[in-house]
Amino acid sequence: MKKKGILERLKEGPVLGDGGYLLELEKRGWVRAGPFTPEVVLTHPEALRQLHVEFREAGSEVLQALTFYASRDKLATVGLENSLDDLNRQAVRIAREVAGDRCLVAGNLSLTWMYEPGSPSAADRVRKTFDEQLAVQIDEGVDFIIGETFSYLGEALLAVERGKKTGLPTMVTICFENKNETTDGKSAADAAKALIDAGADIVGMNCLRPPEHILGPMEDMRHAVSGYLACQPVAYRTPKAKPDFTSLPEFPYALDPLQLTRKEMADYAVQARDMGINFIGACCGTVAMHIREMARVLGKLPEDSRMWQKGGAKPMSAYEYYDHDNLKVGSRS
């Protein structure tokens, strides 16, 4: 039986995405901090496979191929420009293997660091970069395309253009740094309208900001357009004055104390659903425990049903001893 596509699923209700890959794999020792390039796809594919499995089992309905920063120019910074084909191909294959008939697999495009406003030559270079990755990803059978983390609306529009040429549904999300506008000065509402007008099937925001600082702009998008919206915040706590987690001195080596709890991410999922966001996912810092709680509050995953018989007259764990079953602090919404 053929899997329902992303647009079919969105018609039926919110779709739950996955979490962050590069920062989590760096934390586990498989990715180098700094370039954050995804050579782990080739050097330690079992590590990537395991993370995909964790997200699948936590309730993700979409797995993104780890092709973020897998463009020729970005890979060249670590001497892997000639590995583009192998890396993009293997990334999709691993995601498809784990997804099986349970999850959709999204191809992935990311910011290129080569876009320049008003430069036709730079735009053509970006187009060529996107097309090169997409050719491999399409050949390997992705279900739809996600273009993400575009601080320039202009570059995001190029992702829409190239994604739509594949004939597959295309989702493109922008990001805000420390100002509530794109690097080329566009508001969330204006960006959403421009992306929809360009033909994107799903638009929204991702990365850089936690739920606290991304849901406001997302609400502006919801008021501006009637189409499908996607939101994928980071799971790190940031101050109002510097909402972009990559601008903090803690990035990337001291982020651990800033990580949001699973309950905070579950609360975000509820807020996003109630706001009318259709694709509810997350980005850097989001691990399986976050996705699992998000899945539960969205009604996509039941409570843990594994057998546990309490100890009888005496507690057999600290969980019982301190009566955590009945404590309200840290309980789910």
Report what the structure shows.
An 8-stranded parallel sheet has the order 1-8-7-6-5-4-3-2. The protein has 13 helices and 8 strands. The protein has a single domain (6-303), classed as TIM Barrel. It has 333 residues and is α/β, with parallel strands linked by helices.
Label this structure with key terms.
11% strand, 333 residues, single chain, eight-stranded parallel β-sheet, alpha/beta, TIM Barrel
Q: Largest beta sheet: what is the strand line-up?
A: 1-8-7-6-5-4-3-2
Radius of gyration: 20 Å
User: How many beta-strand runs?
Assistant: 8
Strand residues, percent: 5-15%
Main sheet characteristics: 8 strands, parallel
Query: Based on CA inertia axes, which overall geometry fits?
Result: globular
CATH architecture: Alpha-Beta Barrel
At a glance:
With 333 residues, the chain is an alpha/beta fold. The chain contains 13 helices and 8 strands.
Fold blueprint:
Elements: H1 6-12, E1 15-16, H2 22-27, H3 40-43, H4 45-58, E2 62-64, H5 72-76, H6 84-99, E3 104-110, H7 120-139, E4 144-150, H8 153-164, E5 170-174, H9 188-197, E6 202-206, H10 211-224, E7 228-232, H11 262-275, E8 279-280, H12 288-297, H13 318-321
Parallel strand pairs: 1-8, 2-3, 3-4, 4-5, 5-6, 6-7, 7-8
Helix pairs in contact: 4-6, 4-12, 6-7, 7-8, 9-10, 10-11, 11-12
